[in-house]
Amino acid sequence: MSDTQRQPLSPERVLQGAVDLADEIGVEALTIRKLADRLGVGPMTIYHHVPGKEQIIDGMVDIVFSEIDLPPAELDWKQGMRLRCMSARSALNRHWWAAPLMETRTSPGPASITHHDAVIGCLRRGGLSLQMTAHAYAVLDSFIYGFAVQEAGLPFHGDEADVPLDELAKGMLQAFPVDAYPNFVEFTVEHALQPDYDFGDSFEFGLDLILDGLERATE
Predict the structure, then answer these.
(1) pLDDT tens across 163-182, in order?
(2) What does the alpha-carbon distance between residue 104 and residue 111 come to, in Å, rounded to a whole number?
(3) Best CA proximity match to 126, nearest among 112, 116, 113, 136
(4) pLDDT tens digit string along 5-29?
(5) Following CA atoms 82, 84, 85, 86 in sequence, which dihedral angle do they give, to the nearest 10 degrees?
(6) In the structure, what pLDDT confidence band is assigned to residue 1 with cuts at 50, 70 and 90?
(7) Packing angle between helix 53-66 and helix 11-25, nearest 10 degrees?
């Protein structure tokens, strides 16, 4: 039995164990039995601490929200929101399963509510009206969550990719007559296959476009 399994069971340990397991296998594959095996307990023991899988998912999402930095009150709204959005992307990279679930829960936890309250407060401190705050929040989070889902689904992802990007691209290019798709070939060979290419660079570029656009819209 591992040191982790010897620790007394608690709701917090159940939820953190679920997050750790989901990071490995995804939330769809997570079951009470698999979680119980990970924690070294019987499945029914889990129910003594958390009523069921939906409540476990509620708690897992709240843990992810707790890992996202709140926009500091001492920064102006753009700087604060940029820090928060960069932190959100980092959290969603760690927990690749979480993005589709972040705004789906009908029983949000305290970290989720605290996070939403702080983001709204940051936008309002920046002089955004209630309507513009709603637009800003929706557009920013749609971008963050959408980027996270796309990034998690890429067939290449950093140094831990199953197939290096150059090998993957060469295989794709060999699968069709390259003369038929000159724009795709040019982009792949002259940009995506260059040593300094990083898909993630587009996140900061897009985020700054949105923040600059929101600033102009409030002037």
Answers:
(1) 566 666 667 667 777 688 88
(2) 15
(3) 136
(4) 556 899 999 999 999 999 999 999 9
(5) 80
(6) very low
(7) 80
Q: Give burial (CB, 10 Å; 0-12/13-18/19+) of 60.
A: buried
Cα–Cα dist 101/91, whole Å? 13
C-alpha distance across the termini of the chain, in Å: 61
Where would I find the H helices in the chain?
Answer: 3-6, 11-25, 32-39, 43-47, 53-66, 77-94, 110-125, 130-153, 165-174, 182-187, 201-217
Note the residue count of the chain. Answer: 219
Task: Check residue 169 and give its pLDDT.
Answer: 65
| Backbone CA torsion sign across 177, 181, 183, 187 | negative
pTM given for the model:
0.86
Hey, what domains does the chain have and what are their CATH numbers? 3-50 (1.10.10.60)
Residue 182 to residues 166, 172, 187, 189, Cα–Cα distance (Å) = 18, 14, 9, 10
Q: Tokens representing 42?
A: 């019987």
Distance (Å, rounded) from C-alpha 152 to C-alpha 187?
22
| Token pair of 205 as six digits | 């570029």
Residues in CB range of 201: below 8 A, 6 or more apart = none
